[in-house]
Amino acid sequence: MAATPRTSQPYNIFCVAQAGRLEFEAILFALSFRAANPEFKGRLLIAEPQPGPRWSDETRISGPVRALLEDAGAEVVPFESKVFGQSYPYGNKIEALAALPEGEPFVFFDTDTVFTGPLSQVGFDFDRPSASMRRTGTWPEPPLYGPGYAGIWKSLYDKFRLDGFEETLDLSQPDEYWRRYMYFNAGWFFGADPVEFGARFLRYAREIRDDAPDELACQSLDPWLDQVALPLVIHSFGGGRPGPELDGLDGEITCHYRALPLMYARENDTVIDTVEALTAPNKIKKVLKAYEPAKKLIYQGKGRKLRAIIAEEGMPRHEKALRNRIKRAKLWMR
Fold it and tell me: What is the pTM of this model?
């Protein structure tokens, strides 16, 4: 069972959505959140990037989707893309923080998240921010002749004059093994004040992008920039790796499914049953079937067929192999 919460402090939930795939994922996000958290006292916020010079495509959520989100009790909050925009859409989660209620604790989730249990069973300690550990060793990729993991990560802590680099190390892991160094998936994170957290997140990310230490000369920052900056931000606010009180996230309480085909292929029955039940009403179906993955996988039943194929063949060890199986079934889509 999930841990008992440490605090009853009110807080807000937010994700980012815009025209296209994200707005349809936001429907599942909002519906599942309200179903799992009927007594939630905070606000459910959907941050929406506004059209502007950093976007060549339409960003505003469509009218039918907006109506469903508002009917689910979500509030659409506009924000301006001043730094990233279309050149780095993952920067949305950074810039959106400035538009949230100042001084009110927040929890961010990627839009491709489904809720299957109440967040009241998660022990958030907003004075000690943290983030998702459902990650793989995607960054950095140390070059053959160095620097190694320690040199690369320490250069970033030094750049921002952050003390305590050694305290961030997981000493149960071998030296120069990626798990030894604090690295998160930015699929969820939380903090005490979104405006303060966001300002620091934005400064760190922009300075890493524009003036990286020499140790990062061989490193790619796209799409990893947000996940490179996030551990530094969390450490700067006195946070760190999540403890057992947060186990319900990426567990019994939330599911970061990443893409509908992956959800049908590998997530548990509770997630699938929740999604199909929430999307069954005609007013939801009328809007969501405009999204091709939902139309085929949910409404045409091809997701269940994919699930049966994977169950029969066995789950591959690596996601790349799983994606290849989905592609062979001609059901990979986003």
Answer: 0.95
Residues sharing a CB contact under 8 Å with residue 76, sequence separation 6 or more, in sequence order: 45, 46, 48, 61, 66, 69, 70
Q: Are 264 and 301 in contact (CB under 8 A)?
A: no
Q: Is 255 helix (H, G, I), strand (E, B) or coil?
A: strand
DSSP string, 164-213: -GGGG--TTSPTT-GGGS---EEEEEEES-HHHHHHHHHHHHHHHHHS--
DSSP label of 3: P
**Which pair of tokens denotes residue 175?**
């030296």
Output b/e per residue, 88-126; b: 16+ Cβ within 10 A: bbbbbbbbbbbbbbeebbbbbbbbbbbbbbbbbbbbbbb
Longest Cα separation, the chain? 60
- Angstrom CA distances, 149 to 3, 141, 155, 236, stand at 33, 8, 10, 20
Other beta carbons within 10 Å of 171: 8
Both ends of the chain: CA-CA distance in Å? 33
pLDDT tens, the chain, 334 aa long? 444 444 567 999 999 999 999 999 999 999 999 999 999 999 999 999 999 999 999 999 999 999 999 999 999 999 999 999 999 999 999 999 999 999 999 999 999 999 999 999 999 999 999 999 999 999 999 999 999 999 999 999 999 999 999 999 999 999 999 999 999 999 999 999 999 999 999 999 999 999 999 999 999 999 999 999 999 999 999 999 999 999 999 999 999 999 999 999 999 999 999 999 999 999 999 999 999 999 999 999 999 999 999 999 999 989 999 999 999 999 999 9
Sign (positive/negative) of CA torsion 165, 166, 170, 175? positive
Structure tokens at 67: 């109506």
